[in-house]
Design a protein that fits this description.
Blueprint lengths: L10 E5 L6 H11 L4 E3 L2 E2 L14 E2 L2 H9 L3 E7 L2 E6 H9 L4 E4 L2 H10 L4 E6 L3 H11 L4 H15 L7 E4 L3 H16 L4
Parallel strand pairs: 1-7, 1-8, 2-7, 3-4, 8-9
Antiparallel strand pairs: 3-6, 5-6
Length: 194
């Protein structure tokens, strides 16, 4: 007999400045909670080395993105660093209606749009220990030139100023500690302890 769908399915949103460790933390959370339904964002940017279409992002053309936007396809969308990012509305509504918890790795603007449509969404902001550490992480990542890194750092300051819009804030100064904090938040809600 198949288990009944959960009636209290939730959306878990994780946001952070570029380089704060959001993707790594989400990957670790997914390994711990493999039944979380991961929301793969759409983007018009080019894939970074090692990224795969349909696994890391759905890579689409700018024209396709804008056409979908005109047809109200996106639950949330934004333009970030001259590229568009968005989440398919049908993915979220179908997942929740089937009782599946959803994990979203999205930016602040997207998180606020999702909270408008899904006010029960649980929001977590990942903070770097400092701007110096963030800059070091971005440089070591090796995917962006100096001008892009400087833009990301300027944006990071603005993003970190909005951390209080989130229900939870985790400082990622130790990966294992930050991972356990994120897992604990998700487990608390999934077990009905809120």
């Amino acid at each position: 007999m198949e288990p009944a769908a959960k009636s209290n399915a939730r959306i878990f949103i994780v946001s952070a400045p570029s380089g704060a460790g959001k993707t790594t933390l989400c990957t670790r959370l997914r390994a711990h909670c493999p039944d979380l339904h991961y929301s793969i964002s759409y983007t018009t940017r080019e894939p970074r080395p090692g990224e795969k279409n349909g696994k890391d992002y759905h890579f689409i053309t700018r024209e396709d993105f804008l056409e979908k936007r005109a047809h109200d396809y996106w639950a949330e969308w934004d333009r970030v660093h001259d590229h568009y990012y968005g989440t398919a509305a049908v993915f979220l509504t179908e997942s929740l209606s089937r009782g599946r918890d959803v994990l979203m790795d999205i930016d602040i603007q997207g998180a606020m749009q999702i909270r408008e449509r899904f006010p029960d969404a649980v929001t977590v902001f990942i903070m770097p220990p400092s701007l110096d550490v963030l800059k070091q992480r971005l440089v070591l990542r090796g995917t962006d030139n100096r001008a892009v890194i400087e833009t990301r750092l300027r944006n990071a300051v603005k993003e970190m100023e909005q951390k209080d819009l989130y229900g939870y804030v985790i400082v990622n100064d130790d990966l294992e500690t930050a991972t356990q904090a994120l897992i604990a938040i998700v487990k608390r809600y999934r077990q009905g302890i809120t």
